[in-house]
Amino acid sequence: MTTNNHDLEASQEEPQPFSRQELRGMLGAPLRLVDLVLGERRRFAANVLQEHRLPTLLFVLTIATAAFALPFGAVLGPGRFWRIAVLLLGGLAICVPSLHVFGRYIGARLSWAQTLSIALASAAVTALFSLALAPILGFFRITMSASEAVTPQIMAVTLLVLAFMAGIGQLFRLALGDRTLARRIGPAAIPLIIPWLVLYLIITVRLANVLGIGA
Questions:
Q1: How many domains does the chain have?
Q2: Mean pLDDT, the chain, integer
C-alpha cells in the first residue's frame, strides 16, 4: 500500500504536457499564451520531451511570437508594425537549421521539431517582453525628439536588446533548468548554445539593418 501511494504521489507531481485542446484554446486567450511561454515551463518541457502535440505547439508558438511582436513594431511606425515579427521569425528560420545540425553533431538527442520548439519558445519570450515594453517606447517617442542626445530610435534599440536578453535567458532556462530535458540535450549544451547565440545575434543584427529597425 505504501509503495502504491508513493507511485501515485510521484505520478501526480510529474508535469503533464499541454493537450491539443489547451493549446488551441490559448489562441483565443492571450493570458494563457503567457502561461505557455513563461509560467508553465515544466509542462512545456514535457510536451517537448514526449513530442506530444508538437505540430500544434509549434503553430501556437509561431502565432504567439508574431502577435506579441506587432505592438512594438506598430510603435516604431504605422508602416513598420510587421518588422519585429519578421525579425524574430526570420532570424530563427535562418539559424535553427545550424542549431539542430550542430546539436546532433555533439550528441544532442533532439528531433527537428523539438529543437524548433525550444528556439520558438525563446523567440516568443522575446516577443512577449517587446509587448510589455511597447508602452514605454511609445512614451519615449511622444516625449523625446530626434535632436536630443538620446533619441527615440536609440531607446527602441535599447528596449529591443532587453527583450532579446530575456529570450536568451529563457533558452538557457529550458535547455539547462529542466533536468530531464538537459539530459536529452547532453553535457555539451553550453559549448553548443554559446557559439550558436553569437551566430544568431550576428544574423539578427544584420537582418535588423536590412529591415530598417532603429533607423
A1: 1
A2: 86
